[in-house]
Design goal:
Length: 435
């Protein structure tokens, strides 16, 4: 659980970076209609949540550094008995102040009357244009109102700045964020183990998905962090396969890429296993190459190591592995130079992980891959995808798609794998499935 004091510290740190000439404006995520009067489950905008912990829709956060009447302003819904009978309680203005520590809270219906006041006298608006076109319009309309007033000698903002400084803050996780992410991973651990234990030839991919969802939900993760990928056979070679509607056959590999979202933080874990509990020799050979690459990449993680070194290690080991299997021919060095591995491994080593599954934060600084720092959390997820669509690939390799994905934190001296104890070696997986 992230404490209110941590949200307060984040706001303070961010406002320090923004400075008194700027104002920060972040709208809550819009509600998304599904059909008729039914809506998709609501998920707060991650930036908004990071700075407030506030999960209601129809809200706007304003941070106005050094403003006398208060720096943290929340526009949010009023309490309303008629709506609350149907949809449950709302914080209202009193709750925004008492429960979320807003300095001031105004009804969202007053946004257009009051927003100009927060823009006057500021030079820059820290707001990411283009993500929410409806709110872009609201903001630009209010900016125009302010421009109309500058004849009176008032300063009006003359530029927008993306919320990228906030994203650099989000990239470095605190101890309490890592604890929440560990919980997301622990729930995901149970889910993967349950699905593996349940699996046998003849069940449908969606039945494994149901086993995952069961563990997620009963452990307090009300949603997956992204659509669960449960692919068997040829579907293991489709990177973001989410149809999950095929019957699993004897001899198939099954690839599950699924992570719980807990208190809005994501886990993102992949395991690949044989449907009948025993790897074939071909499946095992490919699996062990991916595992070797993953373990070597993880081993290299420490502060100061380059973001790209995991990818370089993976490419090297997997290219060597493809040569050893006879799938690629030639010198490993030349094959890497020519990117001969691309038909089999077409993605990168991983991505930042946090409130978003593909979390925010730059990967390069001034065109150079950035060095790792303590508190960064990311995935390491090499994969080999031996699709029958690859010209010339011998039949015995067809439909072997293997990805192994873990979630890793950079620590003071090295790294910690949050998902370390989820069965991963051939021996561990076969033992689990034999029971
Ligand atoms: N689950 C999506 C990914 O691994 O990036
Ligand atoms: Mn994944
Ligand atoms: Mn991932």
């Amino acid at each position: 659980m992230i404490k209110l004091s941590e949200y307060a510290k984040r706001r303070k740190d961010f406002m320090q970076q923004v400075g008194p000439s700027g104002v920060v404006i972040i709208a809550s995520a819009p509600e998304r209609p599904r059909n008729g009067d039914a809506f998709y489950p609501y998920r707060q905008n991650s930036d908004f949540y990071y700075l407030t912990g506030f999960e209601e829709p129809e809200a706007v956060l304003v941070l106005a550094p050094k403003r006398k009447e208060g720096e943290f302003i929340l526009f949010n819904r009023v309490r309303d008995r008629d709506h609350e009978i149907w949809d449950g309680p709302r914080a209202g203005q009193e709750g925004a102040v008492h429960d979320f520590q807003a300095d001031q809270s105004f009804p969202i219906s007053q946004l257009n009357d009051l927003l100009p006041e927060f823009l006057i006298g500021r030079e820059t608006i820290h707001y990411t244009l283009g993500l929410n076109r409806d709110f872009d319009k609201t903001l630009l309309n209010n900016l125009n109102k302010v421009r109309g007033k500058i004849r009176g000698g008032l300063q009006s903002p003359n530029g927008f700045i993306d919320i990228s400084n906030l994203h650099e803050m989000r990239l470095l996780k605190s101890a309490s964020e890592i604890a929440v992410m560990q919980k997301a991973v622990d729930i995901t651990h149970k889910a993967h183990v349950r699905a593996m234990a349940f699996c046998k030839p003849g069940v449908y991919e969606y039945q494994l998905e149901a086993e995952l969802m069961y563990e997620f939900q009963r452990n307090g993760a009300r949603s997956p962090a992204y659509n669960s990928i449960v692919g068997s056979g040829r579907n293991t070679c489709i990177l973001h396969y989410i149809s999950n509607n095929q019957k699993i056959a004897d001899g198939d590999l099954v690839l599950i890429d699924a992570g719980a979202e807990y208190q809005n933080y994501a886990a993102d874990i992949t395991r690949t296993f044989p449907a009948n509990g025993k790897f074939t020799s071909e499946q095992r050979a490919v699996y062990d190459i991916v595992l070797e690459a993953q373990l070597a990449a993880i081993k290299s993680i420490k502060p100061g190591a380059s973001w790209v070194s995991a990818q370089d290690i993976i490419v090297k080991i997997m290219t060597q592995g493809l040569v050893d299997l006879g799938i690629l021919k030639g010198s490993v060095e030349t094959l890497i130079e020519k990117e001969a591995y691309l038909p089999y491994y077409m993605h990168r080593s991983g991505h930042w992980l946090g409130l978003d599954v593909h979390d925010v934060g730059r990967y390069r600084v001034h065109t150079k891959w950035r060095p790792l720092e303590q508190g960064m959390v990311f995935t390491v997820e090499p994969g080999l995808y031996l699709s029958s669509d690859i010209p010339g690939l011998a039949k015995r390799w067809h439909h072997i798609g293997v990805r192994i994905e873990d979630n890793v934190v950079v620590t003071e001296k090295g790294h910690q794998v949050l998902s370390n104890s989820i069965p991963k070696t051939v021996t561990e997986i076969e033992a689990l499935m034999a029971n």
